[in-house]
Amino acid sequence: MPPAWQRERPRPEQTRPLSPHTGLSSRVQAGGGLGKVSGPDVSDSYKTTLQLRAYRGPMTPRFDAIGMVASDMAASVTFYRRLGLAFPEGSEKQPHAEAQLPGGLRLMLDSEEGIREFAPEWQPPSGGGRISLALLCDSPAEVDSVYEEMVGAGYDSGLKPWDADWGQRYASLLDPDGNDVGLFAPLHGATQ
After folding, report:
1. Distance (Å, rounded) from C-alpha 22 to C-alpha 40?
2. Is the N or the C terminus of the chain less surrounded, counting Cβ atoms within 10 Å?
3. What is the structure's pLDDT at 34?
4. Spans of the chain, pLDDT less than 70
5. Rounded distance, CA 67 to CA 43, Å?
6. Residue 147 and residue 66: Cα distance in Å, rounded?
């Protein structure tokens, strides 16, 4: 499978799903740009008006996915599955895998071998990870329990849980490639 930036994107006039969970879809007209869904089986994140075009003009880029290169695809898929991301069965054996995230974004993992199929000169960056993912937990207690569960399962700690002065319970883990994965929740009484 080609990397995300080489895949064909849906045209504005095509039907596209608005929610991977409900199968609802909406027809977006070429000049329109607005869509609205509602109903009891639609999550709150999908009950908002969608602005599909950020601006008028020949280009319509939009933030769609986060792509990361995995040195060990099986280890990375296992790590992110343990954090609740739903990678399809068999993803650990593929050169490319995607998990749909709440809100419509996707997390994409590509193996180093898969990257070298179209960029033979590619080399992994030296030094530590250069990105950080942040996962919102339901409560400060969940930050602690997820952190303890992951460290107990053998994954590396970045920062032990602590009450940050910006009003969050915060901790971080390192994924198998050394990328920082933050866990956070608002502290009781703190505003975000």
Report:
1. 10
2. C
3. 40
4. 1-59, 128, 190-192
5. 25
6. 22
